[in-house]
């Protein structure tokens, strides 16, 4: 890539309000020493003014003789020696002038898009909240159904246990009834077991109570 000429450097410098060797070196992609040589030539040609104490050259806006040095600045020969011996960092300003903050790039269209995105996010959030509420309602319904099935299962188990107990009671009652009929009924009682009239009287006294107990069991 060819090295930019002095004329190209002049055109670049005239577009700047002020310049130093580092800025010119970075802007043209040349060595710092060559940028310094270009600036010294420009100073003698009046393209830039005399170097200031902070290492920057003011760029002249009108062609003419070299600008007069400011009071208190060093002589050209001494300034040249200082520029030659100073490292590149010395050409940087001690304090760059504060630049005004850039204008906001947000336009009304961008703000409208942002507002639409916020509204869409709010709609999504509301939909998610509704879905969560539906899930909570479904969970509560399932819990209620589980409790109802649990109650029905316990009731069925209780009925089964009651029916089993009743069945056992009926079986015991039938066994007792058969024993009483076999031992006391005149037609079934074995002969030679005592006074038959006494057995018959005892059977007639007990059997109606047995039948009454049986009817109550059936009705319940």
Please work out how many helical segments DSSP would assign: 6
Outline the low-pLDDT stretches.
64-82, 85-103
- Spatial strand arrangement across the major sheet: 1-2
Label the structural class.
mainly alpha
- In oligomeric terms, what are we looking at? single chain
Radius of gyration: 59 Å
Q: Which of globular, elongated, flat, extended, rod-shaped describes the shape?
A: rod-shaped
Helix content: 55-70%
Instruction: Give the number of domains.
Output: 2
Distance between the termini: 116 Å
Query: What is the H/E string?
Result: HEHHEHHH
Largest sheet: 2 strands, antiparallel
Q: How many E strands?
A: 2
Overall mean pLDDT: 76
> Strand fraction band?
under 5%
Question: What are the main properties of this structure?
Answer:
rod-shaped; single chain; mainly alpha; Arc Repressor Mutant, subunit A; two-stranded antiparallel sheet; 220 residues
Descriptive account of the structure:
By secondary structure, the chain is mainly alpha-helical. The protein folds into 2 domains: 6-91, Orthogonal Bundle (Arc Repressor Mutant, subunit A); 111-219, no CATH class. It is 65% helix and 2% strand. The chain contains 6 helices and 2 strands. Strands 1-2 form a two-stranded antiparallel ribbon. The protein is rod-shaped and about 165 Å long.
Summarize the structure in short.
The chain has 220 residues and is mainly alpha-helical. Helices cover 65% and strands 2% of the residues.
Task: List strands and helices in order, with pairings.
Elements (H helix, E strand, L loop, with lengths): L5 H9 L3 E2 L1 H8 L3 H14 L11 E2 L17 H10 L22 H77 L11 H24 L1
Antiparallel strand pairs: 1-2
């Amino acid at each position: 890539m060819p090295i930019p000429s002095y004329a190209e450097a002049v055109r670049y410098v005239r577009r700047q309000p002020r310049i130093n060797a580092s800025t010119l070196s970075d802007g043209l992609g040349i060595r710092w020493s060559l940028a310094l040589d270009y600036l010294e030539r420009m100073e003698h040609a009046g393209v830039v003014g005399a170097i200031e104490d902070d290492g920057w050259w003011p760029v002249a806006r009108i062609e003419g003789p070299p600008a007069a040095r400011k009071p208190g600045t060093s002589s050209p020969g001494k300034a040249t020696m200082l520029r030659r011996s100073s490292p590149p960092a010395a050409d940087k300003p001690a304090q760059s002038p504060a630049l005004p903050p850039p204008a906001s790039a947000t336009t009304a269209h961008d703000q409208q898009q942002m507002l639409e995105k916020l509204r869409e996010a709010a709609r999504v959030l509301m939909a998610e909240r509704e879905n969560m509420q539906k899930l909570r309602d479904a969970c509560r319904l399932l819990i209620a159904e589980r409790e109802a099935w649990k109650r029905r299962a316990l009731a069925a188990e209780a009925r089964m246990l009651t029916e089993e107990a009743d069945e056992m009671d009926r079986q015991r009652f039938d066994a007792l009834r058969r024993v009483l009929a076999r031992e006391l009924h005149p037609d079934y009682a074995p002969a030679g077991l005592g006074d038959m009239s006494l057995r018959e009287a005892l059977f007639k006294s007990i059997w109606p109570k047995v039948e009454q107990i049986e009817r109550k069991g059936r009705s319940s």
